[in-house]
Automatic annotation (TrEMBL):
<feature type="domain" description="Histidine kinase">
    <location>
        <begin position="217"/>
        <end position="416"/>
    </location>
</feature>
<dbReference type="GO" id="GO:0005886">
    <property type="term" value="C:plasma membrane"/>
</dbReference>
<feature type="transmembrane region" description="Helical">
    <location>
        <begin position="12"/>
        <end position="30"/>
    </location>
</feature>
<keyword id="KW-1133">Transmembrane helix</keyword>
<keyword id="KW-0067">ATP-binding</keyword>
<dbReference type="GO" id="GO:0005524">
    <property type="term" value="F:ATP binding"/>
</dbReference>
<keyword id="KW-0418">Kinase</keyword>
<dbReference type="Pfam" id="PF00512">
    <property type="entry name" value="HisKA"/>
</dbReference>
<keyword id="KW-0472">Membrane</keyword>
<dbReference type="InterPro" id="IPR036097">
    <property type="entry name" value="HisK_dim/P_sf"/>
</dbReference>
<dbReference type="GO" id="GO:0000155">
    <property type="term" value="F:phosphorelay sensor kinase activity"/>
</dbReference>
<feature type="transmembrane region" description="Helical">
    <location>
        <begin position="131"/>
        <end position="150"/>
    </location>
</feature>
<keyword id="KW-0812">Transmembrane</keyword>
<dbReference type="InterPro" id="IPR003594">
    <property type="entry name" value="HATPase_dom"/>
</dbReference>
<dbReference type="Pfam" id="PF02518">
    <property type="entry name" value="HATPase_c"/>
</dbReference>
<dbReference type="InterPro" id="IPR036890">
    <property type="entry name" value="HATPase_C_sf"/>
</dbReference>
<keyword id="KW-0902">Two-component regulatory system</keyword>
Length: 416
């Protein structure tokens, strides 16, 4: 979820909570004020009724409260606590019952005591409170709508410089000549962010160029003496005066030198893959490349008496032919080298997947670990970088690769 959506949700929830609580408090406050006004009106009418009764010796029931209800009941009680309470008021004009407010007290007339109950309608107050509540809810809904619109559109405009900066960061390539520039913004925080990213990109690019130059120089310096050693070994091998033991030792040295050379080339290729420096791409018919690769490894397959079966459907990809060749070389080499004498290799290619499986040792490999650098089996003669190269090539083109074990079969599956 985007930051603006988080902010909108939080602000709407917070505002809604505050407004609802405020509306409830406002409702009870208005209701309390209205009740107090009715109580003051009832108190005034009660005072008028007491003055009327005390100044007139007539029947208290003749007291007219002008549409209000006044009930006088003769009582022997000498003391009655005055109280205000909610009750039901009968409206004689409308001929219906409605909400009312009443006061009850004791009124004395000479030697007689009367309990008086005066009731007034509070329908007008109730309607006023309902009207105020409706207006409040309408204002609440309008405020939430305005808040939502402001957060959705105005904040999106406010965050636009950040989105532009983020897109530029995503497109930033450490090997490009163009450096991060950042989009100008009137917001100080975004300007400061752009400056920090610009400085960081300059440091990273500078470090990368230094490392790239060092790696290239180191590789060149390593390849030169290795080439010299290889040339000298070729000359020594051709010397007919050497004994069989000496030739064996030279062959071991020759093998080690070649392994060092391959290791150096593999590490350089890994560095290029991790920094996305291999950019040449072309359409490749994968089924044709696989068929060619089978012919290239035919001698090794026959030497180990392996049977290869394949089902290849047309599948075209866009990639570097050099990298695809390295990927298939590593997979075919592993399938042949770690196979059993007289074993099988099965290759299946369809539009979605490529799977290469071979018979081998009856034990499963550690799936995630085998793709890490310098991870290899006990009997492996390689440098432990083959499957790492395969994984990085797949990552470069957005493919996924995983390892499966099926009762004596070791299987690598690519998903395009």
């Amino acid at each position: 979820m985007k930051l603006s959506q988080h902010y909108t949700r939080t602000s709407v929830y917070a505002t809604l909570t505050v407004l609802v609580i405020g509306a409830v408090i406002y409702y009870f406050a208005i209701n309390y004020i209205g009740t107090q006004q009715l109580d003051r009106a009832l108190q005034q009418q009660l005072t008028e009724a007491e003055e009327y009764i005390r100044s007139n010796d007539g029947n208290p029931q003749l007291y007219d409260l002008d549409r209000d209800h006044a009930v006088f009941v003769k009582t022997n009680r000498q003391l009655l606590l005055k109280r205000f309470f909610d009750t039901t008021y009968f409206n004689p004009k409308e001929q219906r019952s409605e909400a009312g407010r009443a006061v009850e007290d004791l009124v004395k007339q000479k030697d007689s005591n009367y309990k008086v109950v005066i009731t007034v309608s509070r329908a007008g107050q109730k309607n006023l409170i309902e009207l105020i509540s409706i207006i409040t809810l309408a204002l609440l809904a309008g405020l939430l709508a305005v808040l939502f619109v402001i957060n959705k559109y105005m904040l999106n405009g406010l965050w636009k410089p950040f989105q532009l900066t983020l897109n530029e960061i995503k497109q930033f390539n450490i090997a490009d000549v163009d450096q991060f520039k950042g989009k100008p913004s009137k917001v100080d925080e975004f300007t400061e962010l752009n400056e920090a990213i610009r400085e960081m990109s300059l440091r990273v690019t500078h470090d990368y160029l230094n490392l790239k130059q060092f790696t290239e120089n180191a590789s060149h310096e390593m390849m030169t003496p290795l080439a010299v050693v290889t040339t000298k070994l070729d000359t020594l091998i051709q010397d007919e005066t050497l004994s069989a033991e000496q030739l064996g030792q030279i062959a071991d040295i020759y093998s080690s030198v070649n392994k060092s050379s391959r290791l150096n080339q593999s590490l350089l290729l890994l560095a290029k893959l991790e920094n996305k420096l291999v950019t040449e791409e072309e359409p490749i018919s994968l089924e044709t490349v696989i068929e060619t690769k089978i012919l290239q490894f035919q001698e090794l397959i026959e030497k180990k008496e392996l049977t290869i079966r394949h089902t290849l459907y047309p599948r075209q990809i866009v990639a570097s032919k050099y990298l695809v060749d390295i990927l298939l070389n590593n997979l075919f080499s592993n399938a042949i080298r770690h196979n059993l004498p007289g074993g099988f290799i099965t290759i299946d290619l369809n539009f979605d997947q490529l799977s290469i499986k071979n018979t081998g040792a009856a034990n499963t490999l550690n799936g995630p670990q085998i793709f890490e650098r310098f991870q290899k089996g006990k009997d492996s003669q390689g440098a432990g970088l083959g499957l790492t190269l395969v994984k990085n090539i797949c990552q470069l083109y957005g493919y996924t690769i995983h390892y499966e074990y099926e009762t004596g079969w070791h299987k690598f599956v690519f998903t395009f």
